[in-house]
């Protein structure tokens, strides 16, 4: 009986300690992906473009359809590859005619991008609906015109039928609606991880090394910028702490202050190379470099290794994506143009 | 009672008639994908590279992994896209550095390629295991060396572990084994269709128009070359009936007789543009052109439309492919080289 009481107390104490760390993390601005579906839906839904099953299914097809691009060869998934952590694993995105991104910009992951406050590296829009319109039209990416996209989608009766199901009476297929539909699919690409389980109350979800890493992460000040549910995704904090303004990226000047968005740390072990220009391959190097240029802090090898352990707790569980079967082209479908 | 007898007789007669067509089709060399799993396995398995669940799962990952290519951007699925009828929908394949296939060769579908007697347009090898080695190394395709492929796969512990599971004691990762594993996955990409159901005894599986189209298809002589389970996939028949030797394709001369392989007709509605050089977009035009150049026969519009109806019965049912989650690169993984 005595033994049991001790054990109970010991457990409670450990629980309190651990809860202490979780509480501290939340105070520092780190937030979990909620387990409650209604609560999650509130966070990921867009009242102006509500999530429905029909739009998600249609959006998935459009996301995987290379015929939206001028060449017929590049889809959203080419650079935001759902098999590869949601990005492409190369320093600067490759697009139409094998053009490397002229700003040397690295493709950001699409996973959990719904939690970003800012889309694009220069944070020029807060919504995925606006983001989805960008790469489709950008000359060095998918290089398509809105007219090409609308003509392509409209040429296939199966797509037309699915737009009817998705949008009811308002079925006119527009470029904006195509982007909205893709964004709807992207809004569902949420990957809860051990870190979320931990913040949501499961003390055992993270290892001791990961908890220690979380402490180091907060002690060093990383959570100042890598905050919120996405552990990143906003521009604002740069104004306060940034000492390195990333202006040396060709003709890309970031926002008006010469800054780029704080990327998410979720699934970071799967999205090398790092930084907006994809110039750092090792996570440990990225951690140390961020300490130096953003925090003016020396992060030693042991601390970097500890933080890296924590970051592994951000590897998310990805819902199964069944590869869509795309409708067949018709005689009205615009022909691919690889030039 | 009388009525019922009449109905029974009528049904039997109709059944006999329909069976007559099915029998005729089989006599003409057309074969169904068998419904019996053991029988199917005999047809798709390779005793030298036996199909196992472990190899199929690993092969699927490798099939979708762009890191096997020099650039890190092109996977098998880029040109043999399982969402797009198993090919890429563009006239000549695009590869490394946006190089269009120098022989102007069109990417053939991977679906049902296990049933081909010959792989590659020049039919130089009968096995998918050999085929899988080709595009990975071809300079205008994935442009990788065997050493790059082995180094890439070996650099990721998850792949190494899966090779252990797939090959038991014989776990040394070689380029040949990577190709064998991809081929194992490809061997499972079989798509039974209404035509198979019909040949396997379901009289109602094909519409009347499709059955009429099948008759026209056989009457015109199409089944002479488009024969066997794949309705194509062999070289040999060209020697007998070919009058157009497809030599006018740059420096690609086909086999020693200047010929190219007969492509499969399965899923043909989804794999435009047509012919080895992807120069014809409309199925009806392809049918008429084939009549002219291969059979010396005039196929009129009504006949072409009828044959097209039959070809729709070859649209196959594709098993769900859950997008694989690829292992993360490590510091040992060769870096992508887009040049």
From TrEMBL, chains A, B:
Recorded GO MF terms: cytochrome-c peroxidase activity; electron transfer activity; heme binding; metal ion binding
Predominant location: periplasm
Residues reported to bind heme c 1: 76, 79-80, 96
Cofactor entry: heme
Binding site for heme c 2: 222, 225-226, 290
InterPro entries linked: Cyt_c-like_dom, Cyt_c-like_dom_sf, Cytochrome_c_Peroxidase/MauG, Di-haem_cyt_c_peroxidsae, MauG/Cytc_peroxidase
Cytochrome c domain mapped to chain residues: 208-315
Membrane-spanning intervals of the chain: none
Modification note: Binds 2 heme groups per subunit.
Leader sequence residues: 1-18
UniProt keyword list: Heme, Iron, Metal-binding, Oxidoreductase, Periplasm, Peroxidase, Signal
Any one annotated GO CC term: periplasmic space
Name of a matching Pfam family: Cytochrom_C
UniProt superkingdom: Bacteria
Subcellular location as annotated: Periplasm
Note on cofactor: Binds 2 heme groups.
Name of this chain's protein: Cytochrome-c peroxidase
Biological source species: Sulfurimonas crateris
């Amino acid at each position: 009986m005595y033994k049991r009481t001790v054990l109970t107390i010991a457990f409670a104490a450990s629980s309190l300690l651990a809860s202490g760390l979780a509480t501290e993390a939340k105070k520092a601005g780190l937030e979990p992906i909620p387990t409650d579906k209604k609560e999650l839906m509130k966070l990921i839904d867009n009242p102006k473009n509500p999530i429905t099953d029909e739009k998600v299914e249609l959006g998935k097809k459009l996301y995987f359809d290379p015929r939206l691009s001028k060449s017929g060869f590049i889809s959203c998934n080419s650079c935001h590859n759902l098999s590869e952590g949601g990005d492409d694993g190369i320093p600067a995105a490759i697009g139409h005619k094998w053009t490397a991104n002229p700003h040397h910009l690295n493709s950001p992951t699409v996973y959990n991008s719904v939690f970003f406050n800012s889309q694009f590296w220069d944070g020029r829009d807060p919504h995925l609906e606006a983001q989805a319109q960008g790469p489709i039209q950008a000359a060095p990416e998918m290089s398509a015109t809105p007219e090409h996209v609308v003509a392509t989608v409209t040429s296939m009766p199966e797509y037309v039928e699915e737009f009817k199901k998705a949008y009811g009476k308002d079925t006119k297929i527009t470029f904006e609606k195509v982007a909205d539909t893709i964004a709807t699919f992207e809004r569902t690409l949420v990957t809860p991880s051990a870190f979320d389980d931990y913040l949501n109350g499961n003390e055992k979800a993270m290892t001791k090394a990961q908890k220690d890493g979380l402490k180091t992460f907060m002690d060093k000040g990383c959570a100042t910028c890598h905050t919120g549910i996405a552990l990143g995704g906003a521009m604002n904090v740069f104004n306060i702490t940034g000492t390195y303004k990333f202006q040396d990226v060709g003709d890309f000047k970031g926002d008006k202050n010469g800054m780029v968005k704080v990327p998410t740390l979720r699934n970071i072990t799967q999205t090398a190379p790092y930084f907006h220009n994809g110039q750092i391959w090792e996570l440990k190097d990225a951690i140390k470099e961020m300490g130096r240029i953003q925090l003016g802090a020396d992060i030693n090898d042991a601390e970097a290794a500890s933080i890296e352990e924590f970051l592994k707790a951000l590897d998310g569980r990805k819902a199964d994506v069944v590869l869509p079967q795309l409708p067949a082209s018709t005689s009205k479908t615009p022909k691919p143009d690889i030039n």
